[in-house]
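Question: Hello, beginner here. Any chance you could explain the protein record under this note? Any guidance would be welcome.
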Amino acid sequence: MGSTAKQRTVRLSAPAEYLAAIPHLLGFYPTDSLVLTTLHGGPETAKLGMTARVDLPEPNRRRELVAELVRGPVSHDAPDGLLVAVVAAPDAETAESESDSSASVRPPETHPEPATADPPRSELVESLRRELRTADIPLVRALWTPGIRSGGIWRCYGEQWEGTVPDPRSSPLAAELAVSGAITFSSREELAASIAPESPETTARWSARLNLMQDEAEPHRGDATMCAADAEAVFAAIRRTARGSPLTEEDLLRVLVALSDYRVRDLAMGIALTVWSRAAEQLWFVLVRKAPDPEVADVAALLAFSAYLRGDGALASVALDRVERTRPAHRLGELLRRALDSGIGPEELAVVVRDTAVDARLMIEQDET
C-alpha cells in the first residue's frame, strides 16, 4: 500500500479531474490498481484526505482486502466519504464467481454521455460498497478507467455515465507540484528504480571499505565520546549538503558507520522535523543508492520516514521495500510499515519520531555524564 498526504490547494470539480490528479497524489501512474481517496466535509465541497493504492486482488482475496482497507486506513482517517478508482484494462479482468457478486470535489454541472453496461471489476466495487455501508462511510463515487492518460475513457459504477480523462500533465495538481519540484513517475517500478543500487562496482567497493571502517570503530562502540563524534559527523554532512558543498566518498562512508549506532540513527530521524529536513533527505537519497547490505537498511528507513512525514507515501513505501529485503526485522522499518498499513497520518507519526529522537538524545547525554 502507498499513501500520501501532500498539502496542496487545488480545485477538482469533476470525476475526470480526480482521475487526472491520481498520478500526482500517488507519485506515479498506477496500473492494475484500486485507488481510494478519503473526503472530509461536504456535501457541496469536500477536502481530499488520504490517497491509498493497492494491487487489484484475486477474486478469492477480494472480501478480505476490502475489509482490511475499510477497517484499517480508511476508518482510521475518519472520512465523511470516499472516492474510488479502479484502473484496469478490460482484458485484464479475471474470471469471477457470480456467487460472490451477492483538493475540493463538487458534483459536475453537466453529465457526460450515458454508458450501457457495468464497468469491469464491478464485483470488487460492490464488495467495497457493502463494507463501507457497514462502516457507515458513504461511497461518493466509484470510477473505472483502463489507464490514466489523456483522452482515456472513464465510466461510473452504479451511474450510467462516461467521459474522457483530461491530460494528467496539465492538471491543476500537476502544475502545483511542478512548482515545488516534485516528480510524478511513469510507474511504481520507475519510482523504485530511482533508489536502486547505483552499480555493482560501487556496492562492492563500499562494502569492502565499510568492513574495514566498522572493524576500526567496533572497539569504541558504545563509548560516549565516539557516539557524540558520530552524531556530529552526520549533522556536519547534512549542513554541507544544505550549502551545496560536495561530500567525498570518505565523508559518506563515515555517515554510514555513524548511523550503525542506533542512538545516532534515532537522533538523525528527528531531523525530518526540522528546517534541515530536505537536506537530510537529499543525503539519505544519495546514500541509499550507494550503500551495500546490510548498512543500506538504516539509511533506507531514514529516507522512508522523511518522505512519509512530508506526505510522499509512495517514496516511503519503496524505501521500506529496500529495508525489508535487506533486514526484515528492522525495528524502524517495521514501525513505519505498520503506520502505512494502518493509515496513521504524518502528523501522528511526527509525534513518535519526535519522542524517539528525544529518547536518543537523552541516552547520549546520560552516557556522557
User: Anything to note?
Assistant: The beta strands are 2-4, 33-41, 46-55, 81-87, 104-105, 139-145, 153-156, 162-164. The longest strand covers residues 46-55. The two ends are 44 Å apart (CA to CA). The chain has two domains: 2-184, 195-368.
